[in-house]
Structures are given as C-alpha cells and as structure tokens.
Design goal:
By secondary structure, this protein is mainly α. The protein has three helices and four strands. Strand 1 and strand 2 form a beta hairpin. The radius of gyration is 21 Å and the shape is elongated.
Length: 111
C-alpha cells in the first residue's frame, strides 16, 4: 500500500513510477490531488535529508509509507524529528525575546 506524499491519500498497490527504455521514469499521479504520488523517488537522499531537517511532511510520509527502510531506523527518525523540532522552537522563541527586548529599548529611549 502506497500513500500520496502531498495529500495523504492511500493510492493502493499501484506502482509509484513506470520505467521506459533509456532509464526514463514517469511518476504516477495521484487521483485526488493531481500531483506526483511520491516525488522523492527521483530525489537524491541529501535532498530528502534536508527536507526532513526542515520538518516537511511529504518527506516524512515518503519515509513512513513508501520507502523500504529497516524497522530499526524509526526510533532514530523519531529522535531526529524531536531534536529538529526543539531547535526550531527554541530559535523561534529566542527571536521573539530579541524582538521584545528591542521594542523595550526603543520605548525606553523615546521617553
């Protein structure tokens, strides 16, 4: 069973791509959203890893539903997701504190 990485629709046991002579592949389209069912098939693993670090849901859907990976990778993936999410959250909060401090300084200087 495969899942569309863009809209999470289950597409069943269809092939994710078709191969043609000369090494050309054509990705299968999702009937629900009209986009490629899994665009990460033709992407390099570095691009997939970058999208995982950026917490992009289609990359996670590719790993969880469409990729053939070893079961021992899932705990590592969960830990990496939590660490990335914590880092993004902390930098967002830090920027908010910096903006508040700047606003406070500007208000104090205007008095």
């Amino acid at each position: 069973m495969h899942t569309c990485t863009e809209c999470s629709t289950v597409v069943g046991d269809v092939q994710l791509y078709r191969e043609f002579p000369g090494g050309v592949i054509k990705l299968t389209r999702c009937e629900s959203c009209g986009l490629a069912v899994d665009k990460y098939i033709e992407y390099d693993s570095v691009v997939l890893f970058q999208d995982i670090l950026l917490l992009k849901m289609p990359a996670y859907r590719h790993l969880l539903f469409n990729a053939k990976i070893q079961p021992n990778v899932y705990p590592k993936l969960a830990l990496m997701t939590l660490l990335c999410n914590a880092y993004i959250s902390s930098t967002h909060i830090q920027r908010w504190y910096n903006c508040c401090a700047l606003f406070l300084v500007i208000n104090l200087m205007s008095d």
